[in-house]
């Protein structure tokens, strides 16, 4: 009797939880989420670059207009 109880306690110590295996829906979700993130960040960067370029051009135009005003008063 004691043999059985000690053996069952040893068996319970030997049980190892299986490692989780990714399922097809989980892998599909990760692939779709990553591709969506890449595309969204590409469009966001493109929009950011457009606004940045616009600000730069506006500053350059303002500087040229200021130079033109200075040179036209002389």
Description:
- With 74 residues, the protein is mainly α.
- Helix content is 85%, strand content 0%.
- The mean pLDDT is 81.
Class computed from helices, strands and strand pairing = mainly alpha
Distance between the termini: 113 Å
The helix content is: over 70%
Residue windows where pLDDT falls under 50 for at least 5 positions: none
From N to C, what is the helix and strand string?
HH
Q: What is the total tally of β strands? A: 0
**Beta-strand percentage range:** under 5%
Supply the number of helical segments. 2
- Overall outline: rod-shaped
- Oligomer designation: single chain
Largest sheet: none
Average pLDDT, to the nearest integer?
81
- Report Rg: 34 Å
How is this structure best summarized?
With 74 residues, the chain is an all-alpha fold. The protein has helices at 2-14, 24-73.
Name a few traits of the molecule.
single chain; mainly alpha; 74 residues; rod-shaped
Describe how the helices and strands are arranged.
Layout: H1 2-14, H2 24-73
